[in-house]
Amino acid sequence: MNVSAFLQRRNTLIERMQRAGGGVAVIPTAPEQLRNRDAHFPYRADSYFQYLTGFNEPEAVLVLIAGAEASSVLFCREKNPEREVWDGFRYGPEGACAALGIDAAHAFGEFEPKLADILADQPALWFSLGHDAPFDAHIIATLNTVRAQTRAGKRAPPVIRDVRCELDAMRLIKDAGELDTMRRVATISAAAHLRAMRFVAPGRFEYEVEAELLHEFRRHGCEFPAYTSIVAGGAGACVLHYVDNNRELRDGDLLLIDAGGELSGYAADITRTFPVNGRFSGAQADIYDLVLDAQSAAIAAVRPGATFVEAHDAAVKVLAQGLIDFKLLHGTLESVITSESYKRFYMHRTSHWLGKDVHDAGEYKHGEQSATLAAGMVLTVEPGCYIRAADDIPEAFWNIGVRIEDDVAVTVGGCEILTIAAPKTIAAIEAVMAEGR
Ligand code: CA
Questions:
Q1: Which of 11, 281, 358, 362 has a Cα-to-Cα distance from 127 of 20 to 30 A?
Q2: Is 403 a catalytic residue?
Q3: For 340, left (φ over 0), alpha (ψ -120 to 50), or beta?
Q4: Rounded to the nearest whole angstrom, what is the distance from the C-alpha of residue 147 to the centroid of ligand 1?
């Protein structure tokens, strides 16, 4: 574990808190979640907590004290030889303290009383109130414990601030280590899409393709898929969050795959669309190249100093003109954009932040102003076009759902496409699919 990167982040957060008057930040990890009866979902630490500690055990809380003398305290599970036989290694407070470079650590069971001592006479509590109701109850009980000591001269923090505001701003700019991990998970995920392209054929089922993706993620070390993979053949591609993945792939249909792995707590998010039989039809190729042109225009708008919304506006302009040219929309480019009639075929946004969470932390707007891009930010660029069967649409276009999504890091000179290894042009896709056929 690269302790210095986490130490640096904790120090940055403490400095930001000090500039805002100081206080105590309480950042819990995620609770374990039951899936059914006594079986749990695979455990994933809270992203904020993981960002500051690199620690992945459940039942843990980080406390940062941003006073004149700053310090960090971790509460975590105690060593327990009997439980460790069943559930595996636990660091325990002493071990975690040393491994993570934290100043002090205590057993998780001591959290409330120790926090009450820490919070007394502090100017502010920095906490994500409302995120986790059971944990909120612990915090409220602890504040009341401090308040009950008024006559002993102790005062509870008069101010509660949302620590996520500071952390979101920090997480928006990825450091070199984060970008390195994101490059790796992007490359693994691109290889998974390539594997799917080689595997797909009429008669295969969507879940078989999903299995190929998961195989590729896992064999390269991804802990999880970053989100539930969408493997949508034919009309399923026009359902934006289709995750049934249970249908047979048919000759002549397109297949849309939106899937990415998660590596060391960082997500990739890639969409590729390609023909089940390996050759695009005329109408499929027309729509595909239109979406690809829209994506190129959007990526060209990603550079430091540009605003977040510029990529979307660039994509919409290209898509709207194309849909007019194909007579799927009517009117002038200006009227189609102003009336938003293009939303019949393109109803989602072009980008979201990407990082530890697939829809990552970070503001998109400051008041009415779209966020300004800066080096170190990572966003998806993912225009699409979804044409459902309808009386006023020529049949050749029915059930064509195309999305092309890449992960793009803003650099000093422009941008870097992290997912460049996933084939994207019609020629490249058809060449890959022709291999071994
Ligand atoms: Ca996606």
A1: 358
A2: yes
A3: left
A4: 47
| pLDDT tens digit at each of 437 positions of the chain | 689 999 999 999 999 999 999 999 999 999 999 999 999 999 999 999 999 999 999 999 999 999 989 999 999 999 999 999 998 999 999 999 999 999 999 999 999 999 999 999 999 999 999 999 999 999 999 999 999 998 999 999 999 999 999 999 999 999 999 999 999 999 999 999 999 999 999 999 999 999 999 999 999 999 999 999 999 999 999 999 999 999 999 999 999 999 999 999 999 999 999 999 999 999 999 999 999 999 999 999 999 999 999 999 999 999 999 999 999 999 999 999 999 999 999 999 999 999 999 999 999 999 999 999 999 999 999 999 999 999 999 999 999 999 999 999 999 999 999 999 999 999 999 999 999 67
Centre of ligand 1 from the C-alpha of residue 270, in Å: 6
- Would you state the structure tokens that stand for residue 400, as one six-digit string? 């064509």
C-alpha–C-alpha distance, residues 282 and 277, integer Å: 14
**What single letter denotes the amino acid at residue 396?**
A
Whether 348 is a known active-site residue: answer yes
CATH class of 3-170: alpha beta
Q: Does domain 173-435 have CATH number 3.90.230.10?
A: yes
| 3-170 shares its CATH topology with 173-435 | no
Query: Is 386 marked active-site?
Result: yes
Based on the residue annotation, tell me whether 136 is a catalytic residue of this protein. no
- For ligand 1, the distance from its centroid to the CA atom of residue 118, given in whole angstroms, is 42
Ligand 1 centre to CA of 259 (Å) is: 7
- The DSSP bridge partners found for residue 40 are 34
Q: Which of 90, 184, 303, 403 is catalytic?
A: 403
Ligand 1 centroid from CA 258, angstroms: 5
3-state secondary structure of 9: helix
Phi-psi region of 390 (alpha: psi -120 to 50; beta: other; left: phi over 0): beta
Q: Ligand 1 centroid to 79 CA: how many Å?
A: 40
Is residue 124 within 8 A of residue 24, CB to CB? The reply is yes
Q: Could you state, in order of their start, the residue ranges of all structural domains in the chain?
A: 3-170, 173-435
Backbone φ and ψ for 321, nearest 5 degrees, come out as: -65, -40
pTM: 0.96
Report the separation in Å between the CA atom of 30 and the middle of ligand 1, taken as the mean of its atom positions.
Answer: 24
Q: 382 an active-site residue?
A: yes
